């Protein structure tokens, strides 16, 4: 199946954020691209995952199939967070064998003081041959996992499992990336704030609250109930908090593509400014700029050199696709020509900003590059 768009041109427009609508799984890729990805607008996609192996095998008689889960994944090591209070949530997650969590889950009584949540489980990366879900068509343009998985680096594909009462704090997704989350089992309640609304929640120290249950301050927000088979799209810079109304199982991705590439670059620039401010007393040290990049990587997830490597990798594949070398996404979708051109235009825009940043050419990682930003810009221009 091909993912394609009608126009490969970039748009620089602002939009009014509205309540996330519910849309059907049959919505075309182009419609989703134009109305949600490009506009950074949240939505809920219905009827997702009905034929997934996880839906068929992990659930039995409207309950988790503990026997199957134990037999198949019992020896996996998972991170378990105690959601009993804000203080316990902030503690380092526990490391358990998954079978021990299943034992806890089967014997959990509502009201028990330990409310435990399996989070950020890289199950697909641990078991590449286990196709327990398929990436929905609308989320197929996922550069982040395309790059990481194909280069055997890591991934941002997760499974979450939690009893009733587990929750995730008020936050924005890693690197201000997109995220999607599909409920396999149970019900979640989301509170989402469009970009900019979070500014009204910072305290005097510049920190956001972890729980905004009673702190909405009259700000623009949207409350969404997510049921089994619902996939929620959370765009870049949408802060949110999530509660599990019942026991739940969900599959989630963080992702980046041509629609939010530049947004993430701007967030990285802002983060670097904050890093430099924190260590300004060391500004006279040798290699201060390189040290700032190390700290940027630790705090943000990317630094300038890695972000360029990421863009170079994706651009090289897109250029080859224009030379009739097919690009397959998420294991099953073929990239259309207009889409490849759009991706390259997006990369070009961000590489220009990277090249114009005052730090870039002073960084040791760029001084040693044979194929640097100028090279990539020329390759893109030659292909378009």
TrEMBL record:
One of its GO terms (biological process) is positive regulation of translational termination. It catalyses: L-lysyl-[protein] + 2-oxoglutarate + O2 = 4-hydroxy-L-lysyl-[protein] + succinate + CO2. It comes from the Eukaryota. Belongs to the JMJD6 family. It holds the Pfam family Cupin_8. GO terms for molecular function: 2-oxoglutarate-dependent dioxygenase activity; sequence-specific DNA binding. This is Jumonji domain-containing protein 4. It comes from Photinus pyralis. PANTHER family: 2-OXOGLUTARATE AND IRON-DEPENDENT OXYGENASE JMJD4, ARGININE DEMETHYLASE AND LYSYL-HYDROXYLASE JMJD. GO terms for cellular component: cytoplasm; nucleus. Residues 124-272 form the JmjC domain.
